[in-house]
Amino acid sequence: MKLLIVGGVAGGATAAARARRVSEKAEITLLERGPYVSFANCGLPYYISGDIAKRSQLLLQTPEGFDSRYGVKVHLRTEAVEIDRANKRVKAVGPDGETWFPYDKLILAQGGNPIMPPLPGSDATHAFKLWTVPDVDRIQTFIKESSPKTAVVVGGGFIGLEMAEAFHARGIATTVVELAPQVMAVMDPEFGARIKGRLESAGLGVVTGVGLKAVLPETKEVELSDGRKIPAELVLFSVGVKPELTLVKAAGLALGESGGLLVDEFLRTSDPDIYAAGDMVEVTQKVSGRKVRIPLAGPANRQGRIAATNAVVAAFHAECGPDCVPVAPLRYAGALGTSVVKVLDATAASTGLTEKAARDAGYAVGSSIVHKDHHAGYYPGGKTLSLKLVYDRKTRRVLGAQAFGEAGVEKRIDVVATALAGKLTVDDLAELDLAYAPPYSSANDPLNMAAFVALNDLTGFSPTLTAPEAAARYKPETGLLLDVRNLGEFERGHVSGAKNVPVDELRSRIAEVPREKEIFVYCAVGFRGHLAVRILKENGFPSVWNVTGGYTSIRANDAFTEEK
Fold this sequence. Notes:
The chain is α/β, with parallel strands linked by helices. The protein has 4 domains: about 1-110 and about 240-325, FAD/NAD(P)-binding domain, CATH 3.50.50; about 125-240, FAD/NAD(P)-binding domain (3-Layer(bba) Sandwich), CATH 3.50.50.60; about 345-455, Enolase-like, domain 1, CATH 3.30.390.30; about 465-564, Oxidized Rhodanese, domain 1, CATH 3.40.250. A 5-stranded parallel beta sheet has the order 3-2-1-7-18. Helix 1 packs parallel to helix 8 (about 295-320).
């Protein structure tokens, strides 16, 4: 049985190793158009920053290593240029010219390519992308030889933020330029604002809502779409990834509605002898059920494992029956899009659907937000963790979560990812028995607290609105913004037009609150607001809302006009 794999990074390399573990009888060949196989592309920014000291640490395997350990023949600098489906062979161009490689089963794992916008100056010698080891070598050589003092990173997604931090660590004054209204557009706006604030507090520049017009090699600047010019002795483009589909389009394989390569639950393409994995394929978003592309390394590796298993199983079952291999076919259920990114000394992470994505998918969306120490408040060293839980008001099912902070972030997001896989509800999260000791968490973990807030809202015990929802609903003539923080907090900054009645004075001053108006209560982070809502509701106020996340979320969303 001949198994041919095209692409040798995350999905392809994993597929090759898994195929050998499934069968010692298969003849496995891997074609990689680049000069390296199985390298750590997610580690490239950390080599630029110096966190990874040795370049060799990025190279996870070699052709010789693949051959000796797995019996896989690897051909580097060998690009597949044609699939002859009728005769089951692939034409590739390599160091020895054109070669036809036969296959019984073919796995495509070509991934994607970084988008390089056709802007004036984008081909300048000081303009780069980062996707491969040769890319990182070119950037390292340029920094060493040219000692740039300024850099512009075009794009505020994962690689853009990681590279901005890497340049900053190298002492290069760096500005991030993002066309979208926020950096990290895969998260909701308040988290984009938190990330932007953290970058700016460290001295990095962040420009959002503005595109790049041109790279100006003569003056070592970039020109923005609004006419501004920013110094840029080094420019890095990180504006997105498009799937590599040239080969599959020429072969007539079907594409999906999202623009990726169409595969079924076994990761078979429209040709039953061709499987695919990684950034090039379209997958199911496990919460919404929608077809999407999720170009992340984790899903790519798991897809490679499944595609290899199914390709080998199918081939040997056809040849000699189900007893030929020790495993059964595997199904791929889709991906959640769980992700995490380092932002200087902080972390941002998310899983499942954002609030916006959930609304777009047609859910009756609810959101709860907590800003809480990542461990017990009385234990030294607590760091504020901002956590947002997205849920469906009708079914109470958890739909997603996002978090930002200096500690404990990815731990909570991983728990929610597990909850999403199990289709748990906010009721389940509220009762979840999580590990607790003062150095690690609180008796009620921030996740439990976010679920409590959600349940209080769903039951009407303490109704909540997000800051944008409150801003859209509030009208001065029919509503009152009630700030229940203490006077000192209020005087340092508050929402324009808000009335300040500290929660500890609310019972004695309740006559100052008009019963005929909608009351929008906020405190610093939400807890005192919850207490105030209960006081007002117990005293017969008919329409009272707590702004979830309090003034912290109001500011992050830029939801109201502020006064100081």
